[in-house]
Amino acid sequence: MSVVPAKALPRPVAAAGGAGDEAPLGPRARLWPSLAAVYRAQLSRARVARIPLLFVATFQSIGIMVMMRGVVDGGGDARSVVAGSSVLVVAFVGLNLLAQYFGQLRSSGGLDHYATLPAPAAAVVLGAAGAYASFTVPGTVVTAVFGSVLFGLPMGHLWVLAAVIPLAGAALSGLGAALGLLAPRPELATLLGQLGMSAALLLGVLPAHRMPEGVQLLRDLLPSTYGVEAFARTFDPDPAWASVLGDLTVCGAVGVASLALATWAYRRAAVR
Amino acid sequence: MCVRGLTKTYPAVRGRRGAPGTPEVRATDDVRLDIRRGEIFGLLGPNGAGKSTLVRQLTGLMRPDRGSVEILGHDIVRHPERAARILAYLGQESTALDELTVSLAAETTGRLRGLELRRAREERDAVLDELGLAPIAARPLKKLSGGQRRLACFAAALVGERPLLVLDEPTTGMDPVARRAVWAAVDRRRAERGTTVLLVTHNVIEAETVLDRVAVLDRGRVIACDTPAGLKERVAGEVRVELVWRERAPLEVPEIAALRDRAAEHGRRWSLRMAPEEARATVAAVTGGAAFAALDDFTLATPSLEDVYLSLGGSGQGLVKA
Asked: What DSSP line would sit under chain A, residue for residue?
C-alpha cells in the first residue's frame, strides 16, 4: 500500500504503530469468512421473512404440473414438465425474490451498511445469492419427487439435483442480484424479476419441440434452460451423461458470468 | 480529520409530463472542517441542509466533485475503500439488518469488519451487555420499537473497534435510558481509546449537551463553527420569549400588535428574540393587561443553538428541541 504523505495538520497525538502520520488501518475482512457471515445472516432471514414465499414457489410449480397432467401423458414431454417445474422454484426464489431484495436494499439506503464495512463486494453478493439458492432446495426436491410420482417417472437419478440446484441457482440468483442492483427504481427491479421468472416458466415448462423457432432461440438464451435440459435427460433409464455434463457446464459458466456481473453491479450501486 | 473545499452538486432533473423538474442543487458547497482527535464534533442543521451528503462524502460512499478529505492521515477521496477500515458508520437506515436478530446483526457486522468468529462473538456480547440489549438479543430488529432498533444498530456500529465513529442522528426515537446508554458508551470509548466522534444531528438540545464543537450547516455551507458556548456568546445579549395564545393573539391590544412583526409564528406559538430589558417589558405587558386573558403559556429562556442558527441567517425550519 502506498504511503500518502499527510499535510501539516493540527494533531495532538500521532497514532502508535502508524507509518508517519497515518493511523493504522483496521483489518480487511477476508473473502471466505465474510462470505460465510453474510450467508449465515441471509439464511437466518428465512425464519423471519421468507417462509410464506417459499411455500408459494413450491405450490406454484406443483399446480402447474397438475394442470399439465391433463395435457401431457408421459414420455419426453412429461420429463420437460417435471424438470421445468422443479427449476422454476429456483427461478422464483433466486431470480425474482433476490432481484426484489437487492432492489429494495439499494433504494432504501441499506447498501450503505455493507459499503462502509471492509468486506469484499463478492462476499456480499455471493453470500446472498448462495443463501437464496439454498432456500430453493426443499421446494425443488419436493416438486421433483411429486412430479416423478405424478407422471410415473423413474426417481433413480434425482441425485443430479445436487448439481442442478447450485449451478442453476448461481446463474439465476446472479442474474436476479444484478437486475436488482442495476434497476434505477425498486419497482423496476421487481418487474424485471417477475419477467425473468415468467420467462423461466413459459420457456422452461412447456416442451421445447412445440415452440416456434424464434421462441426456441429465446429459450436457448435463458440460463435456466440448461439446468432444465440436464435434469430432464436424467429421467432416461440410460441418460446421455456427456450431454448432461455439457448442459451443466453451460449453466456453471453462465453462473460465474452472472455473479461477476452482480458483483460489478454491487460496486457500482454502493458508491454513488 | 481535515476537509477542504468539499463540493458536490446534484444535477438538475428535467421535469416529466405533469411533474415539475428540480433545479441543480449544490448539496455541499466548499465545505472546510478540521476535527481533532478525541473530539465529539457535531454537524447541526435542518433537514436538507446537506448534512447527510457531507457525511456520505466523508465515509467514502460518495465521490465529491471537488475538494479533499483526509481522515487520520488517509486521503479518502483518492482511497475511498480505506474509509471502511478507519471508521464505523451508523446510517439512518437499518434495512440491511432489519430481519436479523440483534445478536446476529452485531456479530455479522463485526465479522465483516474483519474480526475472527470468536473475537466477533466476544465483542458482540460485551457491547450488548454495555448497552443493556442482552435481554432482547434473540429478537429480530424488525419486531423492536424504533428506539430499540436504533440502539441495536448503534451496537452493531461499535463491534470491531474503530478510531472514528460517524453517527447520523443516532438517538432518533430513543427513550432517555437508551440515550444515556449511547452517550455513556461514546464517552467511555473516548476516555479509554481517544475515539473521535462525528455526530450528525438536528436536535439542538442534544447538540448543546454532548458536543465539544459544532459546525452549523445551512444550504450546503458551513455558516459557523465553534464550541456550543462560543456560538451562544454571539447572541449573549438576547433572550428568547415564547408566547402561547389560547385561541389567537389579542391583536386589539396595541403592545401585542406591535410585537407581531418581530415574532416567528408557529400556529398559536410566538417566538421572539430581544434584549433583556425589552423582554421584561413584554412579559409585563402580556401578563398584566388585557392580553393576559388570551395567554395560555409563556417562557423566558436564555438563547439556545437554535437562536444562534436563526441569527446566522439560517432558514430556521426543521430543527428539533427535545
From this structure: ---PPPPP---S-PPTTSSTTPPPPPPPPPHHHHHHHHHHHHHHHIIIIIHHHHHHHHHHHHHHHHHHHTT--SHHHHHHHHHHHHHHHHIIIIIIIHHHHHHHHHHHTTHHHHHTS---HHHHHHHHHHHHHHHHHHHHHHHHHHHHHHHT---TTGGGHHHHHHHHHHHHHHHHHHHHHH-SSHHHHHHHHHHHHHHHHHHHHS-GGGS-HHHHHHHHHSHHHHHHHHHHHTTSSS--HHHHHHHHHHHHHHHHHHHHHHHHHHHHHH--
Is B133 among the domain residues? yes
Angle CA A217–A221–A223, to nearest 5: 140
Task: Indicate if B247 and B265 belong to the same structural domain.
Answer: yes
B132 in contact with chain A, both atoms CB, cutoff 8 A? no
pTM of the model: 0.85
| Selected residue with higher pLDDT from B230 and A5 | B230
Give per-residue burial for B256-274: e unless 16+ CB within 10 Å, then b.
beebeeebeeeeeebbbbb
Here the ipTM equals 0.84
Please write the tens of the pLDDT for every residue from A126-174: 999 999 999 899 999 999 999 999 999 999 999 999 999 999 999 999 9
Are both B150 and B275 inside the same structural domain?
no
**Which of B111, B121, B162 is the mutation pick for testing A, counting most A CBs within 10 A?**
B111
Check whether residue B271 and residue B166 sit in a common domain. Answer: no
Best of A11, A34, A113 to disrupt the B interface (most B CBs within 10 Å) is: A113
A22 vs B contacts (CB less than 8 Å): 72-74
User: A39 lies in which domain range?
Assistant: 31-270
Q: Which residue of B has its CA nearest to A24?
A: B86
Say if B67 is an interface residue toward chain A (CB within 8 Å): no
Give a yes or no: residue A13 inside a domain.
no
Residue B35: which CATH number?
3.40.50.300
Grid cell, residue A175, equals 442474474
- Tell me the shortest Cα–Cα distance from B297 to chain A, in angstroms: 42
**Range from A147-161, B10-24, B201-215 that averages highest in pLDDT:** A147-161
Tell me, what DSSP letter sits at residue B31?
Answer: E
Q: How many domains does chain A have?
A: 1
Contacts of B90 in chain A (CB under 8 A): none
